[in-house]
Design goal:
By secondary structure, the chain is an alpha/beta fold. The chain has helices spanning about 5-20, 30-45, 65-75, 95-105, 110-115, 140-145, 160-165, 195-210, 210-215, 220-230, 260-275, 295-300, 300-305, 335, 340-345, 350, 355-365, 390-395, 410-415; strands at about 20-25, 50-55, 80-90, 120, 130-135, 155-160, 165-175, 175, 180, 235-245, 250-260, 275-280, 285-290, 310-320, 370-375, 375-380, 385-390, 400, 420, 430. The chain is globular and about 65 Å long.
Length: about 425
């Protein structure tokens, strides 16, 4: 560990110490404990006569949102002048009324009864009227934050509902993440409810570092530093309830409260102990069984990100998701460029720089490590295979391998000593010791 890295972790520990936290690795909090923690935390904040915007995850994250929302609604009753729940889609598909009802824990059509006075809306990232600019980060500062990897200014645009409320309260889980190190905190603003400019810049910065190098990295990574800088421009008071959730469940290991920087740091400490599994030796093959909350490869690709570090050179990751029928519902550009390693784009930048950098980043994250030159072409470390409902010609055109999902015998894979089978893949990171 370099002195800079050690110092960075020490600073993150100091941040974590500022937050209130209950629970920890191996703990399962009761509903009463969670409700009491939320009530006590919000009681200590000046919310009387103020408007509150709750920024919450969409359905691609494990999160006991009904429990949290019920506790927050009770804690704000008679205090907040208005409360808005904003779904942080990033650039994911919008959630319809039925999905929102399940997600927030009320009968369809029964929002007003379950949560009187609350307005719920998707982050409408496709509508330019959604956004307001809160300032610009100059190129010199971007160069500093990115450690010299990028040097252009960025307009920081954000969903206007965040800016038009007095308080912005993030409520969401923390997991190892392929772009930023650990998700959560200010990431619910950027990219959660952000304009394309910061989304593209931050995701491409993560791609330049590479997913394998940044995922599960503790402390303030360059991407986290960029996100925090953007968040500092938000005029509303920023608070956060950061959660550590047992993957694939509604069980909370821990919950922390404070400003987004400190609450995130406190939760990330627990996530690093909870959401990372270590293997003694690399495996030749992984079968990642993807849950149905991932509706396309754009989101189901997490089954690759979280497993890439433990696969041997020349190995394979199979994403098994028979329910998935398209590569990217909201990003057809990926079908045009396909999946390639970072250097494929960097060394042909004039050819690809016009494509949204967030799309380029997603491409590199799923294709993993590799090299490219004009003579030898692209050389990739791993094979990525889709066993999904996507037609074979579409899969192969995207530069991925194909396996008929009807031919997948999970029991046979489990019996194979060279294969690691991971049920409910996508949230737990696997690493070598």
């Amino acid at each position: 560990m370099t002195p800079t890295r050690a110092q960075d972790l020490a600073e993150t520990a100091e941040l974590a110490a500022r937050a209130r936290r209950v629970g920890g690795a191996g703990t399962s909090l009761s509903e009463d404990e969670v409700t009491a923690f939320v009530a006590e935390s919000l009681a200590g904040v000046d919310l009387d006569g103020r408007s509150v915007c709750l920024v919450v995850p969409d359905g691609t994250r494990s999160c006991p949102l009904p429990l949290l929302l019920k506790a927050i609604h009770a804690a704000l009753a008679g205090r907040a002048t208005r409360t808005t729940v904003l779904i942080a889609l990033g650039t994911h598909a919008a959630m319809d009324d039925a999905a929102l009802a399940r997600h927030l824990g009320h009968p369809e059509g029964g929002l007003d009864t379950a949560y009187p006075g609350v307005t719920v809306m998707n982050h409408e990232w496709w509508d330019p009227q959604t956004f307001v600019s809160v300032g610009t980060i100059p190129s010199e500062r971007i160069s500093e934050l990115s450690e010299g990897r990028l040097d252009q200014a960025v307009d920081v645009r954000l969903n206007r509902h965040v800016v038009e409320h007095d308080v912005a309260l993030v409520v969401g889980p923390v997991f190892p993440h392929e772009v930023v190190g650990f998700s959560g905190g200010n990431k619910y603003f950027f990219p959660g409810v952000a304009g394309q400019e910061v989304i593209d810049l931050s995701h491409w910065l993560g791609a330049l570092i590479t997913s394998a190098d940044i995922i599960g990295t503790r402390g303030i990574t360059p991407v986290r530093a960029l996100i925090n800088e953007a968040a500092s421009l938000i005029p509303s008071e920023r608070l956060a309830l950061c959660l550590v959730v047992k993957s694939g469940s509604s069980v909370l290991h821990a919950i922390s409260f404070g400003d987004p920087e400190s609450a995130w740091a406190a939760a990330a400490e627990v996530s690093a102990q909870t959401h990372v599994r270590y293997l003694d030796a690399p495996v030749r093959r992984v079968l990642s069984i993807m849950p149905e909350k991932y509706e396309d490869i754009w989101t189901a690709a997490k089954g690759f990100y979280k497993l890439e570090p433990v696969v041997a050179d020349g190995g394979e990751v199979i994403l098994y998701a028979p329910h998935v029928t398209e590569i990217a519902a909201m990003h057809p550009e990926i079908n045009e460029i396909g999946y390639h390693c970072r250097d494929y784009f960097v060394k042909q930048w004039d050819r690809f720089k016009h494509v949204h950098w967030g799309v380029l980043a997603h491409s590199t994250h799923l294709r993993g490590a590799g090299t490219y030159d004009e003579v030898g072409g692209e050389r990739l470390r791993l094979t990525v295979t889709l066993a999904t409902g996507i037609p074979e010609d579409v899969v192969r055109a995207a530069n991925l391998d194909y396996l008929d999902p009807r031919e997948v015998d999970v029991a046979a894979f489990e019996a194979d000593p060279d294969t690691l089978v991971v049920p409910q893949a996508g949230e737990v990171l696997f690493r070598l010791r």
